[in-house]
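Repro:
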Amino acid sequence: LQLVDSGGGMVQPGGSLRLSCASSNGFILNYYTIGWFRQAPGKEREGVSSIASISGGTKYADSVKGRFTISRDNAKNGVYLQMNSLKPEDTAIYYCAAEPGGVGYDPLAPEEYHNWGQGTQVTVSS
């Protein structure tokens, strides 16, 4: 499985971005739990949101609840992270990650995932 994440950019506080995660080699992402993670300079990688395989159950970090929405489009074989009301503290490199089937313990724990995209930069600044 090869993942491609995209959609990052620079926005002002309060703005929105939509990140995309796709498979570049034909794997069906609906059979994978997908997580979005971010890593700011000097900080550890943290889980932002996840969506479970098949059931589509979602989970969010407290810091993004009510502002970010994760979703799937099975017809397009993509997973998306809609980010609204962005704050400067959301600035980071964002990564999508995938794990076949379910995730064992915590779907927002980076160590649960073994397939990662290359990352896309999100910068929130005025």
